[in-house]
Amino acid sequence: MPFEYKKVLMLGATSGIGWALAAKMIENGVSVIAVGRRQEKLDEFAKQYGSGKATVDTAAFDITKLKEIPGFAKEIFTKHPDLDCVFLNSGLQRHLDWTKPENVDLDTMEQEMLTNYTSYMHLTKAFLPYLQKQAPKPTSLVFTTSGLALVPIIYCPNYCASKAALHHMILAMRQQMKQIDSNVKIIEVYPPAVQTELHDDKHQPEFQGKGRSLGMPLDEFTEEAWAGLSADDNEQVPVQAVKTFMGFNGWEKERQGTMMKMMEMMKKSH
């Protein structure tokens, strides 16, 4: 089936996965509101895709400015009352080495958690009521997490922790929405390592120029992720390695099954 939403707010649209998926949506007739911190990149996106098969709008915003998020959500929905999909995709990744605690930068750790997790909670709280008000029209919140939410690696443990926290919240949030038969679908996209600027030297100099070659090519990721988002069963969209050896089709499904059993046990005890 085709992607069922007609207008998407794409946060983190100025590079990497966000840019690529937003472009793919426009190619398939889905209107996009591209959001990011860098106005020059937003202008570039609008220039490149503004004459495509769907409308393009842009909004410069820094999601780490938490107090400004409610006003941003109101502004977006005032201008775009037909917005039916909010795609939370922004993120950053940094190295962290606990063998040298004197070099651990707690401010960097806090910024990573703020960007990857805390801001998502503020954005969810701000945007969810607007999506709920559109009932019975189907709407969605889409979250980009990571295969590292399931299987951590040692060079970026704080990034892994932030994605694991988000993954757990999404699992619980989805079931809460289902319990009230909500019109808001909760979708999670699990990328593996993808060749984007996330790994560039300006962000992670530890890679010594090799970061951009890590993972699967961005165009291959985009095709597989888009196919998953356009499928009938699109609540969870694991891509490539996340399915093959990071546990999604094995112990992660078993773990989610255990979660459902615990929910049933708790219902019976109340």
Structural notes for this entry:
This protein has helices at 16-27, 39-49, 69-79, 106-132, 157-179, 218-229, 241-244, 248-269, and strands spanning 7-11, 31-36, 56-60, 85-88, 139-144, 184-190, 236-238. With 270 residues, it is of the alpha/beta class. Strands 3-2-1-4-5-6-7 form a 7-stranded parallel beta sheet, sandwiched between helices. The protein is globular and about 50 Å long. The chain starts with 6 loop residues before the first strand and ends with a helix. This is NAD(P)-binding protein.
Set out the fold topology:
Elements: E1 7-11, H1 16-27, E2 31-36, H2 39-49, E3 56-60, H3 69-79, E4 85-88, H4 106-132, E5 139-144, H5 157-179, E6 184-190, H6 218-229, E7 236-238, H7 241-244, H8 248-269
Parallel strand pairs: 1-2, 1-4, 2-3, 4-5, 5-6, 6-7
Pfam family, one: adh_short
Family: Belongs to the short-chain dehydrogenases/reductases (SDR) family.
InterPro entries: NAD(P)-bd_dom_sf, Sc_DH/Rdtase_CS, SDR_fam
